[in-house]
Amino acid sequence: MQDKKAQIGVFGGSGFYRMDGAEEIKIDTPYGAPSDKITLTEIGGKKVAFIPRHGKEHQIPAHMINYRANLWALKELGVTRVIGPCAAGSLQADVKPGDFVICDQFVDRTRNRKDTFYDGPITTHISAADPYCPEMRALAIEKARKLSIPVHETGTVVVIQGPRFSTRAESRWFGGQGWEVINMTQYPESILARELGMCYVNISLITDYDVGLDGNPDIMPVTHERVIEVFKNNNDKLRGLLCELIGALPDQPGCSCYQHLLDARMV
Cα–Cα distance between 122 and 225 in angstroms, integer? Predict the structure, then answer.
């Protein structure tokens, strides 16, 4: 494995299953197999490892993804920064399908997911106050604006268990809290990266208005087919943003994301 290394990890979400690369490798982890083989490629002079989080055939639903194996595999390759684009729904009228949201907060509404590497004997309480890397977020926003992509600089993503979509009552509740984005995969992926000392940024590609939009009967509730259609239509924008962002990342992080793990141990 010594010759198989990467600096940046990228997860592919719904509609984003492949990235051109020189080779595919298989990695075993203490937590089982990752979602699929890992594609190794180079972008902007940096070595990149790509994993389709649902598998190449979208065979793994969100609640069954082996998030720990995915993150551990990237760590084994030497990855220090992770980019996690995902398809997501909007909970607010001003966050439109086709927009990108660079989330700065999440709300976890999942259950029974394996969401930590630290079950003992060393007690580890990782800080989640600001769960996304500030340096990577700032660069993602800058590059999205450079590419004229409609982007929201902040946003809270509420993460639901799946595989079902929300009821109207649930969606009204989430939107009433002021949360902007709804998704099924942002937890525990982002916090597991932090537990391993890796920087993580989310790029939410808005595909729909969740259960529709109150007062507008022409906007219908989300369907999986609609999610894939909008995501595919915007894949070129996403790929362009990823190339710009990866190329702009400095060789050494200027953030303190790694420090959270060092400060989390009860020893």
Answer: 45
Q: Which residue among 36, 130, 208, 251 is the active-site one?
A: 208
Q: Is 16 helix (H, G, I), strand (E, B) or coil?
A: coil
Active site residue 263: no
Burial of 192 (0-12, 13-18, 19+ CB in 10 A): buried
Residues with Cβ within 8 Å of 168's Cβ and at least 6 positions away in sequence, in order, are 211, 212
- Specify which residues 265 forms β-bridges with: 124
Q: How many CA atoms lie within 13 A of 67 on its CB side?
A: 26
Q: Let me know: does 103 contact 181? Beta carbons within 8 Å.
A: yes
Is 210 an active-site residue?
A: yes
Give the mean pLDDT of 226-234: 71
Architecture category of domain 8-262 in CATH: 3-Layer(aba) Sandwich (3.40)
Average pLDDT, the chain: 90
Provide the whole-model pTM.
0.92
Quickly state the pLDDT bin for 35 (edges 50, 70, 90): very high
Place of tokens 């194996």: 69
Q: What does residue 199 show for φ and ψ, rounded to 5 degrees?
A: -75, 150
pLDDT classification of 16: cutoffs 50, 70, 90:
confident
Active-site choice (36, 99, 104, 210): 210
pLDDT of residue 41: 92
**What is the domain partition of the chain in residue ranges?**
8-262
Provide the 3-class DSSP secondary structure of residue 35.
coil
Q: Which amino acid is at 174?
A: F
